[in-house]
Amino acid sequence: MRKMLSAAAAFATAATAVVAMSGAAQAAPAGNSTVYGCLSGNVCIWAEGVNPIDDPHPTVQYTSYGAHNLSNQFGNHWVLNNQYGGATASLCNNYGGTNCYKTLAQDEWAYENLTPVNSITLNRP
User: Fold this and answer.
1) 77-121 confidence digits (pLDDT tens)
2) What number of other Cβ atoms are within 10 A of residue 62's Cβ?
């Protein structure tokens, strides 16, 4: 009887650990965290000189990890890292996500001259 109770306790402990680990691995934001039109989990860029408060429609929304080459982005733009789980975004001078000079933390905004920026990377936490 003791062996059976011991085995049941070990199984319950292991099952609890698996559930706890899977919940942490699939963490998602609580509720809707769309910010001025930028969907939760995305990195967004607004049009040149546009204030997101006045025009909540980003012109570009990046949704996947990795490097994204920019095109026709000149002058000053608002950029928002609206990712979750500690993911960052980097602004890079070269195509392909190289020669990065600035990293935005989760929920961080930047007002940047994107003329010299040729790519942006979305980085896993």
Assistant:
1) 999 999 999 999 999 999 999 999 999 999 999 999 999 999 999
2) 21
Q: Are strands 109-113 and 76-81 parallel, antiparallel or unpaired?
A: antiparallel
Q: How far apart are CA 65 and CA 95, in angstroms?
A: 15
CB of 114 within 8 A of CB of 45? yes
CB 68 within 8 A of CB 120: yes
Distance, CA of 3 to CA of 8 (rounded, Å) = 9
The residue that leads in pLDDT, 8 or 79, is 79
Q: Is the pTM of this model over 0.90?
A: no
CA gap 11, 89 in Å, rounded: 41
Computed on alpha carbons and rounded to an integer, the radius of gyration of the chain in Å comes to 21
Q: Where are the domains of the chain?
A: 31-123
Query: Domain 31-123 adopts which CATH fold?
Result: Gamma-B Crystallin; domain 1 (2.60.20)
Instruction: For the chain, report the end-to-end CA distance as a whole number of angstroms.
Output: 46
| Inter-residue contact 78 to 109 (CB < 8 Å) | yes
Q: Report the DSSP beta bridge partners of residue 59.
A: none
